[in-house]
Amino acid sequence: MFESGNDVAPNPASEKPQFPEGLRVLAVDDNVVCLKVIAALLIKCRFVATVTTKATEALEMLRKNKESYDIVITDVEMPDMNGFKLLEIVGLEMDMPVIMMSASDDTKTVMKGIKHGARDYLTKPVRLADVKTIWKHVIKKNVHDPLKLGNIEEKKDEHPEHSKAKKQRGTKGKEEETNAQCDAATYRNKKPRLIWSKELHYKFVDVFQQIGREQGIDKAVPKKILERMNDPRLTRENVASHLQKFRNTLKREGVKLAKMNEDNEKNNAVLSKAIVHLPNPTTVSTGIPSFGTQSQTFGAFRANNRRPLYYNPANQHNILLQQNVIPRPVADQKCSNMHIPAPIFSQNSCSETELDWMRFHSNIPRTNMVNNHSTDSTSHFPGFSTGPTTMPNVSYSCPPSGAFNLAGVPLHGSTQLNHIPQPESQVQSSTYGQYEGTNLVNFNGRGETNGHFLQHPFENPESESSGVYNNYNYPDDDLSYIIRQFSSNPPPRL
DNA sequence: CGAACAATAT
DNA sequence: TATATTGTTC
């Protein structure tokens, strides 16, 4: 019948339901389908259902003639009014049994509802079994008032329309039941909401980048992505929704990247001034560039053996700790944040400068990295010493003209980043690539351009190293004043 | 019309 | 918040 199993199963021996009839219920929900189902369920219980889709209207009705209702069931997420406010007014101010309805039944929400005067809660979709129990709240309320208790049974006759509905059981009533049953069934059989596991997200990112490379970033649209992902779990809507969020994330990160690099310029300027006073030969530590605490975010890069090495002026300690761990896609692990992809670059449009920049982004095939670094702490990786955690990080990583941002879109206009020419006197090509005319750093300090690069120690997932590669050679204190500059410049957060 | 996209709902 | 749904535009 209405519900499967013991939900309905009316006792054939007794015509009467096992609860009082004629309970006058005001049901409030802006979702008409939901409301329809609820109304049908209420009628099924031989209650008198009054429904409205507006919380304000419900309140008006209650204020006008509160005595017309025994109980109120209301959604707590009504658009025209704070649902909890309605609970409060009805449950606390009016001292009326009010039951909250919500799609979520987490303890926090329920407790909030109870605090706001709810006697009980119904989780959507509401089922007959749930509705059958609501009369108890009226009994509880009137437990010291037997007169009112007795009234419940009588009330049904005061509502001829209800009796009418009852009489039509065989015809229209049946129809309504069927519809309601149908709706309820649809509601319950709804596909469970998709969770974008890491595995799924990586797949998405791969396809996104693939299409981006082949056809351009704006050709990566839901339908194409869906087709290429070829995953039965997904619908176009799923992909569209995820893509929307993904693009937003890229956009946000893009802005941050630009802002961050602006900061870098300032920092570089500060440092280049400061360095004038430092003794020679001096090697200045640069940090491992990253987006602050978001380095986890770059898991997707690893899949491509490309790792962005953006400069991060602070939080180096955290970054280093995290970068020792190469995140890998884990099957069906929930994807808690929006991982962003490696820069997308076309094969044929990369200028030398772009390539330089990308090199800086450690665009190194993993196969080239293995055994490519020494565990000897004297082995320098210019520009990538970890240094002590309090060391200032000096960036040379401002992308040159024509650089791409994270979405593979060239950096233009206000996001365009310029080289910061270093003072001539600071150019020391014999020292591991610090001032080689530009603010770009070569991995091997020899102006490497042939495509083979040294590996950053942390780049190697197999590395056993705890990763203290300290190539600065003067005490922290010497730069403490610079540190202060950087500490007022926290890394961007998502 | 269907798809993409943005906005909004849950 | 993450995902779903809706509304508008293309």
Q: What report would you give on this structure?
A:
It contains 17 helices and 5 strands. It is 38% helix and 5% strand. Strands 2-1-3-4-5 form a 5-stranded parallel β-sheet, with helices on both faces. The model is unreliable at 1-14, 154-188, 274-332 and 343-494 (pLDDT under 50). The chain has helices at 32-44, 55-64, 83-93, 107-115, 128-131, 135-141, 146-154, 160-167, 172-188, 198-215, 222-229, 236-275, 299-303, 316-323, 352-360, 366-369, 480-487, and strands spanning 24-28, 48-52, 71-75, 98-102, 120-123. By secondary structure, it is mainly α. It has 2 domains: 5-188, Response regulator (Rossmann fold); 236-487, no CATH class. It binds a DNA duplex (10 and 10 nucleotides) through helix 12.
